Amino acid sequence: MSLAFSEMSSVVLETPLPDLSVLRGVAVTALGVVAVVTGALVFKVDSMARATYLLAASFVAVGAAVVALHLDYVGVVVVLMMLMEMAVMGVFMVMLMGMNPALMPMSMVHSKRRALVAAGASFVVLAVGILLVDWPQRSSVPPEGPAGSTEGGATTYSLGDALMGDHMLVMMVVSPVMLATIVAGVVLAQAQGRYARLGDDLRGTTQGGRR
Amino acid sequence: MAVSLRPLQRVLARWAVRGTAVLLVEVPGGWAARAAVERALVERGWRAASSPADADAVVVCGTPGESWGEVLERTWEQMPGPRARASVSAPSEVPGALEGLAASLLDDDAQRADAASRDLVPADVENGDDMHPAGLDLAGGEDDLRDGLEMDVLRVPLGPVLPDWPAGLVLRTVLSGDVVVRARVEVLAGAAARRDSADDARRGDDVARRLDAAAQVLRLAGADDVAARAVHLRDAALPAGLRSLSPRSAPSPSGLRSLLTSSRGAGAEEAHEVRGEAARLRGRVERSRVLAWALREADVATSSPTSGAESDAAQASAPGDLRDVGLDARRRTRDDVRTLLLGLLDPDARDDDPGRRTRAALEALPERLVGVDVVTARLLVAALDLRTDALGDDDLAAFAPRDDEDEDGDEADGGDAHAHHHGHAHG
Amino acid sequence: MGDVVQVAVPWVLLAAVLLGVAALGVTALDGALAARAAGRSASVGAQHPLVETARLLRQRRRTTVAADTLLRHVAVGGFVVAPLLMVAVVPLGEWVLADASVGVVWFNAVDVLVWVLVWLAGWGPNAAWSLTGGYRFLAQAMAYELPLMFALTAPAVAAGSLRVGDVAAAQPGLPHVVWMPVAFVVYCTGVLAFSVRGPLSPAGGAAISGGVLAELSGVDRLLVLAGRAGLLVAGAAFAVPLFLGGGSGPLLPGWLWVLVKTALLAAALVVVRRRLPDVRPERFLALGWTVLLPAALLQLLVVSVVVVVRS
Asked: Which residue ranges does UniProt annotate as crossing the membrane (chain C) (predicted)?
């Protein structure tokens, strides 16, 4: 199988990559519009649940646009992570902002002036950045990925390489440590939880301290 | 067009009615009727509905008292339709009642008229205002029992129309998420003379009733197949007078079938056989490690002071120490759901005064449920085998439904747990 | 993998039909088992899906006070779409609807979509039991999702590809399930959890009166019931290329092997599901974080070492 694969990918590599096709351009633009519109609607609707899942829809559109740019892995992971995050965030939004399901219409905007200034300023900074940065020219040859990878895979590989470089191993070691830190932090910060009954050793043998 | 669709609709209706979902509403004193309906449902291939939205028909088992009127009407309104209703007060009425339901559900024209006559949006919707959209109360905030964060609380009455739930019991709960913050017990009494059921108990249906309670616990725990076994045994253990259906068609555990058909009413022998089967079922439940794992610690509140002294101590101490208060006591002194379940399946256990036992359990219930999640609460309520039909008049008066649902009423009734909870959360 | 051909979009109809038939099949099996346990004839119980479909087609849709109808519709419709999105990347022998280069991640993204659907189905009706179901599902979601992710990673690492067809082709003679059984078990646990029924689904169950289903009637209910049966089937179908050697097998053509393996695994999951009582979320959290996750990680380590040694 791997033989067939490298043959195939070598064929791909030798063929010059066509420019972004019209179709792809249209798709990226349309998805961008969807992302912006759903993102803006977040501030128009009057329910926490709708706001949360409009934001999720916006991120899904971004993920789809990234897929359309041939970064398949990054795009699908964006969708995956954002659905997950928004599902969890929705719970926190409802918990902290308190209201009945779907009932209490409430405004999704607060301290409008400051928010507008902050948003405008960051937009200007980013837009200026985009215009001023000396972007590298797109080569007509797709970046080389590991043997056997497709065009999308190779692009993802080179993106990861550009971001992480030699630090991939460090990142891979650090991420489980960070996860453990988060979990431990939550456990320690919680004075009491569903596991308190099991005592400090989590075996359920500890005597109730104040009994 | 309508004419050409008619035969198709009739076929659809016939198929639909073969799987009718029936919402069972048990009124105190109606347990024998309910058991008979359950048995008839299995025979017809029908099933019990899990909620009004799931139901095609509602069957009221027993004779409801005055306090039931509004509850039954609201349940009827909540059913999507096609819908039908019936009430049975004795096992012998069951076959006729179910026939009637089937006929009513099959009557397309009548169902169409019923559907046209009502709007499926519930009738009590008002226009509402900012704080009462659609005429409903907003969820209020309340400090969470576990971590002191303010959480939404919802006022949710549990019962009386709830599957696998004691007849007529209403738990007016305040829920924070899925955790009970406080609860108040009410009992909607039946109109039928409760002496009958007391007599039933003396006639020896006690084993049957405890098997019935065990089946409810097992169903709630999701152990459907074991529950079905317990239901078999319950039906076999019923005194002959309470069996409405012909013994030929009555489902029974395979080992019992011959006994039932040959010597109906041969009480002693039969009872002995049922006891043996019950003991075997108990062994099966006891040995099941999965069930033990799933039910273990199912009656352990995460944290709630159990007495005033403890609460004061908790308040005085650092927050870090607070978590142990009361937990250990609960773990050691309270039976958990599994223990109660095993007790229900013990054929030799005796229940001499179900009325007094039920009253004591109901009085202790609000405090016991504080900090317990709703699923555990339902398991516990089922496992306690509450016999509301054995309550005396003065007991019923003590648990009579009250109109005041305001904060003060709840607080006054919510018991010590609530007051303490507030105490330490703000302290 | 050269021998997986991406078919045209209209074939999605065939996929939907196959999925629907399989969903009816697992529901019928469940009904038959339930009927047998209740002392009734299994063949009558097997008619349950047809009877229930007729019943729900005839029933009216019901609304609740101040419901979020839009979000409820999104959830109900999504339940039907999600299983289709899952099977879109599963090769049926040599044909596949979408030969995605990251099919494994795609499947994972769709099973996370189930989180959204369940919660929205719980939120939409604006009712206590539904909401409780939605919250309880999310409460345990991470405890099955993380182990599931690592279980999905193991076969992909072994095959050196995230394309489902490649993973299927990477196990000639020796299906992955043989040398990564832990990942397979963890994966099946995940399928049981995201198919919103049975022991690992606190979103429903008798103890909360059906939970997210409590307020649904008529077509709404039918679609959710069909969708969750579809999720079980899709989960079983995806295990075929991942763990069970895809379409490889003696005598029969590849596509038939895929169907047979899917049916067998789905049936096995139904049987297992019936035998287990409901597990409360806090119980499952302990199991997920302290047993399933470490086990899945160790399995991944073993697979990675084998891959490195082999190459």
From this structure: 12-33, 70-92, 104-125, 137-158, 178-196, 222-243, 255-272, 284-309
Q: Is residue B97 part of a domain?
A: yes
Q: Are residues B381 and B306 in the same domain?
A: yes
Yes or no, beta carbons of A102 and C113 under 8 Å apart: no
- Tally of CB atoms within 10 A around C302: 15
- Angle, CA C67 vertex, CA C27 and CA C225 arms, to 5°: 5
Over its length of 311 residues, how does chain C's per-residue pLDDT go in tens digits? Answer: 446 888 878 888 999 999 999 999 999 999 999 988 888 888 888 999 999 999 999 998 887 777 788 888 999 999 999 999 999 999 998 888 888 888 999 999 999 999 999 999 998 888 888 988 998 899 889 899 999 999 999 999 998 888 899 899 888 888 999 999 999 999 999 999 999 887 888 888 888 888 899 989 999 999 999 999 999 999 999 999 999 988 888 888 888 999 999 999 999 999 999 989 988 887 888 889 889 999 999 999 999 999 989 87
B21-26 and B47-48 strand pairing: parallel
Q: B285 and B314, same structural domain? A: no
Residue B318 and residue B280 share a domain: no
Residue B61 within any structural domain of the chain:
yes
Q: Which domain holds residue C136?
A: 5-310
Range of the domain at B412: 140-188+300-334+352-426
Could B82 and C199 be called an inter-chain contact, meaning their C-beta atoms sit closer than 8 Å?
A: no
Cα separation values, B171 from A65, B377, C246, Å: 52, 10, 53
Q: Find, in chain B, the residue whose alpha carbon is nearest to that of C210.
A: B50
The interface predicted TM-score of the complex, written ipTM, equals 0.90
Q: Which of B13, B50, B376 is nearest residue C214 as measured by Cβ atoms?
A: B50
